Amino acid sequence: MPTVILYWSPGRTDEQKKAVVEGMTDVLVEHGGARREDVLIIFQNIETGDFGRGGKVGSPPKMNTD
Question: How many domains, the chain?
Fold first, then answer.
């Protein structure tokens, strides 16, 4: 079963998540030979303070809403 864990900043809409799931599933089926029903995609939001970079606790980049 192909499993994709997508780490990203919070703030995406349900419509955006749906589009990502559909697109990633299509790619794995078409190019990876996966069965559509076996593709699992997990979204993991990275909140401020949930990671460190360069020895310091970081903040995720701001989403461009323009």
Answer: 1
Residues 6+ apart with CB under 8 A from 58: 48, 51, 52
Q: What is the pTM of this model?
A: 0.77
Read off the CATH number of the domain in which 40 is found: 3.30.429.10
Structure tokens at 54: 């360069």
Gap between the terminal Cα atoms of the chain: 37
Coil, helix or strand at residue 10: coil
Q: Inform me whether the pLDDT recorded for 43 exceeds 90.
A: yes
